[in-house]
């Protein structure tokens, strides 16, 4: 049984986070002898791929980057999202006719940026606005390397800071982040947080309107303003990573592009704020979690539980980076470790164990106890129950899980009956275990995880 990793109302299995096929290279590159194609925005088109499937896949992967690139121009996330949708419509019209571009993500960014520039030209004085945004903005590549820590040029990081402005409530930030940066639909967000779809839709609309009417800048702020937004920014980056590591919905367990974006943003944030221990704590946690990605699914995409993973497939370079970041978190912490540093320490215990049986469960149980005392939540308690299982046995763990049955945050949360089912099976209460696995499958939004739970229900004897 894997552990649930604290990540808000939804949570994920510890030692596991999910994702799909193969990042932006998901669309195959040109054949060895690619014929010249029609050019649009400087991108050559290739006709060899199913255009409609390509549009759907690429837009899902590239949506956050397109929105961020357009927000740089129009400074309004609501308008940026509309222009990104316009670029999608253009792709649906042109790709079936002309073929799929060799770099479809770049095509979408270019198409959306051009519409943004046209919009600015119509609304504002032509010469003045062109001097502000650059005459050839659509063709200007981002700088390869920042000249200094405070000059990091990353539109996604700017978008994260923008959506984490204190004018927005925590609920609005979460909904807007999952929509713009996670690419989730309104129904998926509503299902993840167990709230009505209309409520989520209203939060997103109001959040975008608030950012526009309050003229919130599209920037990475400096000084005290940056420090004031740090907590929400860390939470948002963690949320993005978890959506990639454990997809809320769909047929793929993992969405690697989101994991990679979140890890890159966390590393850049560490360069911006090297004296902040929780930044290093988050980087450490994400490095450890990302190190397990290759072992988390079988070749056919089936989830592989932590205890069954081939640890030789864990990425030792990422583990080493996680250890270094955890050391930095400890070196910069003035007092007790923060929430992310504690979770990173738990992940480190898994990383140091070459087999599941070698895991230092006593240390993990102690760390979860500290986490529960300093940052109490039902999801943390659910995780702690798994550690208690390994140190005190299934009966003690089941008592902790049963105490969480009425927790509002876990109502409709599939990992609660999943963990309970595993404990019941270990106690020989197989009929109850099968019923709980079946109930968990009914609550799971991800197809791969649902299949796994149904399979476990069928094999519990």
Task: Produce a short descriptive summary.
Helix content is 61%, strand content 3%. With 461 residues, the protein is mainly alpha-helical.
Features:
single chain, 461 residues, three-stranded antiparallel sheet, 5 strands
Measured distance between first and last alpha carbons:
16 Å
Rg on CA atoms, Å: 23 Å
Total beta-strand segments: 5
Structural class: mainly alpha
Tell me, briefly, the overall form: globular
Mean of residue pLDDT values? 81
Portion of residues in helices?
55-70%
Strand content: under 5%
Strands ordered across the widest β-sheet: 3-4-5
Order of helices and strands: EEEEHHEHHHHHHHHHHHHHHHHH
Largest sheet: 3 strands, antiparallel
Individual helix count: 19
- Residue stretches low in confidence (pLDDT < 50, at least 5 long) are 2-47, 135-151
């Amino acid at each position: 049984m894997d552990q649930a990793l604290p990540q808000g109302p939804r949570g994920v299995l510890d030692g596991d986070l999910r994702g799909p096929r193969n990042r932006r290279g998901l669309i195959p590159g040109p054949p060895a002898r690619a014929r010249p194609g029609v050019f649009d925005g400087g991108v050559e088109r290739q006709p060899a791929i199913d255009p409609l499937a390509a549009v759907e896949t690429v837009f899902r992967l590239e949506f956050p980057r397109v929105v961020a690139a357009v927000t740089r121009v129009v400074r309004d996330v609501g308008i940026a999202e509309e222009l990104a949708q316009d670029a999608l419509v253009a792709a649906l019209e042109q790709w079936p006719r002309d073929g799929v571009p060799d770099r479809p993500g770049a095509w979408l960014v270019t198409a959306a940026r051009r519409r943004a520039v046209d919009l600015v030209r119509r609304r504002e004085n032509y010469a003045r606005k062109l001097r502000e945004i650059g005459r050839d903005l659509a063709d200007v590549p981002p700088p390869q390397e920042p000249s200094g820590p405070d000059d990091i040029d990353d539109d996604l990081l700017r978008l994260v800071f923008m959506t984490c402005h204190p004018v927005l409530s925590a609920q609005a930030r979460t909904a807007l982040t999952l929509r713009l940066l996670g690419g989730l639909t309104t129904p998926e967000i509503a299902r993840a947080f167990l709230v009505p779809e209309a409520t989520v839709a209203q939060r997103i609309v109001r959040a975008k309107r608030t950012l526009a009417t309050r003229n919130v800048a599209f920037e990475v702020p400096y000084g005290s303003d940056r420090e004031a937004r740090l907590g929400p920014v860390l939470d948002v980056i963690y949320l993005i990573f978890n959506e990639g590591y454990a997809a809320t919905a769909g047929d793929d367990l993992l969405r690697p592009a989101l994991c990679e974006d979140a890890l890159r943003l966390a590393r850049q944030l560490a360069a911006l704020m090297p004296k902040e221990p929780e930044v290093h704590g988050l980087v450490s946690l994400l490095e450890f979690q990302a190190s397990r990605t290759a072992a988390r699914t079988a070749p056919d995409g089936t989830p592989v539980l932590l205890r069954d993973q081939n640890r030789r497939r864990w990425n030792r370079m990422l583990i080493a980076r996680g250890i270094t970041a955890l050391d930095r978190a400890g070196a910069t912490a003035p007092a007790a470790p923060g929430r992310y540093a504690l979770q990173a320490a738990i992940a480190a215990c898994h990383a140091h164990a070459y087999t599941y049986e070698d895991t230092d469960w006593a240390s993990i149980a102690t760390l979860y106890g500290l986490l529960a005392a300093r940052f109490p939540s039902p999801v943390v308690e659910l995780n702690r129950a798994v550690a208690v299982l390994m140190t005190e046995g299934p009966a003690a763990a089941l008592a902790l899980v049963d105490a969480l049955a009425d927790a509002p945050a876990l109502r409709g949360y599939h990992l609660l009956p999943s963990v309970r089912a595993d404990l019941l099976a270990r106690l020989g209460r197989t009929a109850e275990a099968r019923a709980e696995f079946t109930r968990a499958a009914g609550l799971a939004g991800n197809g791969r995880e649902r299949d796994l739970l149904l399979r476990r229900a069928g094999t519990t004897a």
